[in-house]
């Protein structure tokens, strides 16, 4: 027997969610009476912006009170109740465990992962009195470490077995982890980046994680830092914590607005600067509004802030568009009527008649694509031709002034040029790719995005950059990001956690997809005939250049032409040097 779960269970879930929100509202009202703030949730549309602006003590998570098992309930009712109750992590999923047979209650592991679906396509198939299959269609998964990944929507069967305990049906076997519909997930879970250092300790590099909101969130975030980065970042980032550093107890106490982090004796191997870096790494990884106090085996540590060399987080770029218009190259004024030149750079770049420019952080040098190849231009110097191969892409330049250059028809021929002009052919991890439309290094220099063609398919990927000292020596295994399909045209970094790709669909329509790294993707309204996109400091500041030379900016729900006759829209890598 197979039946659609959607019609009945969606009604049940709406009722339960309404009750949940009533309870949450009453709880918040009571909290306000004693001076606490209200609760907030993750935005339900657009790109998720990670982080929480209020300390957990002041921001109680919604209180979800699912129903307990009812007397003489059928296996179907027990199953539905269990899946709904498993959305509530309170008291180690105590209510959900009451739907389980006693021998299974302690062995079921709800923290092994989360399957997120839209809640409307679940089907239930009864194999026999003691066995039922539930087919769910996932849209995303969250693993045990809090890593979120969007997945293809194809049904997955989950097997549940039942036994009678004292004349009452209970679940005796079930998959580990939980199944949550996306609306409930957005209420229960929150996204927060944990941070690791680039190898030079100049930048903090984000690694987005998703955990249930509530009192346990700081503990989970600290453990995520101590356990190290996601697999795809391993080898490209560093941690300040000495090997073997752990919490002495699996709990971070939050007193007032201060997170108390007590580490084991392995942390005694840290010198003064390392302790300062440890504190800075934790402070960035916890929700905004919390301060951090580190103790070691309950012994206080006098850890001052880094006086110099504090790491940069989410490097910003000049908010003005950087354009070539006519024979002028520079920053477009807010009025759109004038262009401000870059001292020592603009004239030289304009004389090359470039088709692409990437301005290095500090604005003292740039990688430039001209008709005869890729140049590096340094303020006050003559341009230096680095790569004279045909068919090159727009080059990228990283914080150590290495220039990245690759032909569009040969993605494996990626060459990196050092500041002294030495060329290194860098091994690439995409042997199946036959073309490449964009390759952009992140502003922290630890990651890159690439828009690849594999026959008739477009793949948008992110990968880490492996270095020895400052020199790139390899690229980590790529992670697939969402793309718009069609033919890939361009890609860009928007900020430390958000990227975007531009493609042209078979219909000729341009499509821009914004992707939060480790989070959700969103299809944006796209201007017609777009051929280049460039990020600034937020999704709303994304810019596009059309085939007709119109610079387009987002206004309200659509796009508006800012200025015409623009030849080139340049990429910036950051304000700092």
UniProtKB/TrEMBL annotation:
InterPro entries: GerMN, LpqB_C, LpqB_N. It comes from the Bacteria. Signal peptide: none annotated. Residues 218-305 form the GerMN domain. Transmembrane segments: none annotated. It holds the Pfam family Germane. This is GerMN domain-containing protein.
